[in-house]
Write a structure and sequence with these properties.
single chain, alpha/beta, DNA polymerase, domain 1, TIM Barrel, 2 domains, 11-stranded mixed sheet, two-stranded antiparallel sheet, 13 strands, about 30% helix, binds S-adenosyl-L-homocysteine, binds iron/sulfur cluster
Length: about 350
């Protein structure tokens, strides 16, 4: 495990709005009002999101007068890596410091041929899931568009060599659909092919605990992949694990998933944490296959990641394999997702907002 701390950023309050808080349309409108040609938006976005510069001064094909105008009207935030931890399996956990002193965690995961980045969408989370470390702090606040994007820009600085960062999962701290507007604005920049960050929508996945009232909008607003944290096959168990189930019980959740507008040949991923003695029986496996019948589904089994503050245990390996076997027999694609970065608490559900107060 390696610990690194980078330089402290400027701490003066920033009164000008951050250029990374704006969409392409908003910037174009602003430039238009100032009499600047619309193609400048593309040029400026290209500097920020493709060439990934850190200041307006570096935008050499923008005239001095226009750079001055930008500097006078906008600030330019930089991702601030307060701490980086490297796991034995080469996963990297970043602790990003935010302007108000809060912190968020982001995990860069090396896969065979590419990197995946797991990003946060809120500081803390209000959903109160029993098994999840992030739930312990409650919701502190939503992340802004720039704070979501800066996690990707910050991690990209460390991605060198042949392997590229191609996959983004919104599975870090927070419930993305509870911060809908900022999340969608950030996704639009991430997947903007016209000098935005150019991630493929097929390689961006949003994971939700099941805020079904946002599903229709999400299907309309983006074509990214959807993942559902399911974790139980009956309402009693799911409500015990995930309080949101009391509001939107399984029947409603599955209905909303069946209606969800999927891209052709795409499936919804159902994440199922296996917890010893709670949801890991053969009966659960059978119920799961029945429950998911109305949906085009694939299943990710996640052996529970144990952490202090939660009494749950991970099942024996043989139990996990038997559970998976039932799913396969019933024709479901399922993988067992062995979380990386466990030695640095970077695995699923181990991210925490607790550090923020002690470190600032
Ligand atoms: N709030 C969103 C996204 C972030 S949680 C959601 O709930 O989907 C990301 C994933 O981590 C979820 O699938 C959640 O079920 C899983 N998770 C949380 N705590 C975990 C733990 N202790 N072990 C394994 N997975 C966990
Ligand atoms: Fe929030 Fe997701 Fe954790 Fe539940 S599992 S508390 S929704 S981050």
């Amino acid at each position: 495990m390696t610990l690194t701390t980078e330089i402290i950023p400027e701490t003066l309050p920033e009164l000008k709005p951050d250029i990374k808080e704006f969409t392409r349309e908003e910037l174009t409108r602003w430039f238009h009002e100032k009499g600047i040609q619309p193609y400048r938006t593309t040029q400026i976005m290209s500097w920020i999101y493709l060439k990934r510069v850190d200041s307006f001064d570096e935008m050499t094909n923008i005239s001095k007068a226009n750079r001055k105008l930008l500097t006078e009207n906008f600030s330019f935030s930089k991702p601030y890596k307060k701490q980086i931890e490297v796991s034995a399996d080469r996963s990297k956990k970043y602790l990003f410091g935010l302007k108000d002193g809060n912190c968020i965690e982001t995990v860069l995961i090396p896969e065979k041929n590419h990197y995946t980045l797991c990003i946060s969408t809120q500081v803390g989370c209000a959903m109160g899931c029993r098994f999840c470390m992030t739930a312990k702090s409650g919701l502190i606040r939503n992340l802004t568009q720039a704070e979501i994007i800066n996690q990707v820009l910050g991690a990209l600085k460390d991605v060198t060599g042949e392997k590229q960062l191609t996959n983004i999962v919104l599975m870090g701290m927070g419930e993305p659909l509870a911060n809908y507007e900022n999340v969608i604005r950030a996704i639009h920049i991430l997947t903007d092919n016209d000098n935005g960050m150019q991630f493929s929508t097929r390689r961006v996945t949003l994971s939700t605990s099941g805020l079904i009232t946002k599903f229709d909008e999400l299907g309309r607003d983006t074509k990214i992949n959807l993942a559902i944290s399911l974790n139980a096959t009956d309402n009693h168990t799911r409500s015990m694990l995930m309080p949101i189930n009391k509001k939107y019980p399984l029947e409603q959740l599955i209905d909303a998933c069946a209606r969800y507008q999927l891209a052709p040949r795409n499936k919804i991923t159902f994440e199922y944490i296996l917890i010893q003695g709670i949801n890991d029986s053969i009966e659960d496996a059978h119920r799961l296959t029945k429950l998911l019948k109305p949906v085009k589904a694939k299943i990710n089994l996640i052996p529970f990641n144990e952490h202090a503050g939660c009494e749950f245990k991970r099942p024996e390996e043989s139990v996990i394999l038997k559970f998976q076997e039932v799913l396969h027999q019933k024709g479901y694609t399922s993988i067992i997702r062995r979380s990386k970065g466990q030695d640095i608490s970077a695995a699923c559900g181990q991210l925490s907002a607790q550090k923020s107060s002690s470190n600032t």
